Write the structure tokens for this entry.
Amino acid sequence: MGLADFFKFGKDGRKEKVETENATSHWIKCSHCNALMYYKEVSVQHNVCPKCNYHMKISLEERIAMMCDPNTLVEYDKNLYPVDPISFVDKKSYNIRVEEGAQKCGRPSSVLAGECSINGIKAQIVFFDFGFMGGSLGSVEGEKIIRAIKRAIMSKQGLVIISASGGARMQESTYSLMQMAKTSTALAQLSAAKLPFISVLTDPTMGGVSASFAFLGDIIIAEPGATIGFAGARVIKQTIGTDLPDGFQKAEFLLEHGLIDMIVPRKELKAKISSILKFLNNNAESTFVLHL
């Protein structure tokens, strides 16, 4: 934004200052290395800092554009809407929180599930949207994952789940916790059908999500620097009464200790997933076109 953009000319020819409160910022500051960068320099890197390789959070729309071939994503079950089984109220009622989340994100749940092509390989895919109640796992989210698994079995396709979640949704109490068992049981059926499940852990993947399906993948991939765990570091320290290793809930620590299979930079993620799907699923339908 140049200096002229801050002013406009009034009817009498004098310069008047333009309100810039809602103007788009063209500069981004990395929260890891504090480098100040032009926004286009960061966006072309899929919101990865070009100075220190820190993987910033990205929106669901950016994640879809990065992962799916253009115009191939078909969303299913988008009208499933959560109910309030225990009439939960904290500072707000659960119903109000769901309505606010729906207005903010354009959908009434933290999960988008559908079918897409990934570099020409058809697959069932599930995205978590951290913007909707912290990507929490509730009954609707669990049901969408179950239906995605069933579609994968019927279509003989692989399944990809990209997690970004704070864990089980407390507003649904035990109903939310039951989704951990429900999704794990369905994944056993996917395994029995000899179809691959690739679990992608992004920042953050915590709580009931990490304690269930997120760590049941045939291949478990994490983005660099992702925070992954069950409870927060402070809670764990207070529980066991001892100091914890530095970075023990980071992807790099988990890889070193054999809890995940690989760390893949964001720009390489699509190619890596498509190659794994093609390798593990002999039934994979491809839309590749051979040009002679």
